[in-house]
Amino acid sequence: MRLCRPYYLLTLLPISIFDSCIMTLIEKYFPNLNDLQKQRFAQLQDLYTLWNSRINVISRKDIDELECHHVLHSLGITRMINFKPGTSILDFGTGGGFPGIPLAILFPECRFTLVDSTGKKVRVAGEVASELGLTNVVTIHARGEEIKSRYEFVVSRAVTNLPDLVKFVKHLIAKESKNALPNGLVCLKGGDVQAEIRTFRKSVIVEDLYPVFEEEFFKTKKVIYLPL
């Protein structure tokens, strides 16, 4: 297990100390992070290890692979889009905060709403966001159909099949666009997605995360965009 320091000490240490403890894969693929972003990414392993020991949001055997399987995977959204400042994003079915929290660190000038129907998972996401000082994150314990606000983008990771996901979120998309892509859904998927995208073949865009991310884990991983 890779623990940099006891998590309760993290906020007491100067930002420069975190250079040796930053997640190496994140630094490899995102070399232009500022000091605050480095600090926040550096805290994730310890924070999630602590909270996962209390509330199981990540499988016990997978917690040691947090950087690759959860944090970097979440940042695979950037393979499709880099959000402009001021963009509003809903993380639908966030679980313990993925992909929303890593994206909120990377895009501090965007607004992220993390929603999940399981209260204990949303609690973990909220506590982690609070510990990190992510003022651009709001967490909501609710079902998707209960959300009334509108967002420029909905992001998700392994929530459900694409046709059902579209049904759940299409009413949540705002009309006015300001990003390089029109407003819509950006989701992370694994395996063969051909059956899922068949209905949307004329408008869907699918990008492989491998070999942009070189690790074996990403060989079957994809990011999918669908304008809504």
How would you describe this structure to a colleague?
Specifically methylates the N7 position of a guanine in 16S rRNA. It is found in: Cytoplasm. Its EC number is 2.1.1.-. GO terms for molecular function: rRNA (guanine-N7-)-methyltransferase activity. S-adenosyl-L-methionine binds at residues 93, 98, 116-118, 144-145, 157. The chain is an alpha/beta fold and 228 residues long. It has a single domain (19-227), classed as 3-Layer(aba) Sandwich (Rossmann fold), CATH 3.40.50. The chain is 32% helix and 17% strand. It contains eight helices and seven strands, in the order ααααβαβαββαβαββ. Strands 3-2-1-4-5-7-6 form a seven-stranded mixed beta sheet, with helices on one face. Helix 7 links the parallel strand 4 and strand 5 (184-190). Helix 3 packs antiparallel against helix 6. The longest helix has 20 residues, at 35-54. It is globular and about 45 Å long. The model is unreliable at 1-21 (pLDDT under 50).
Quick summary of this structure?
Its EC number is 2.1.1.-. The chain contains 8 helices and 7 strands; from the N terminus they run H-H-H-H-E-H-E-H-E-E-H-E-H-E-E. The protein is α/β, with parallel strands linked by helices and 228 residues long.
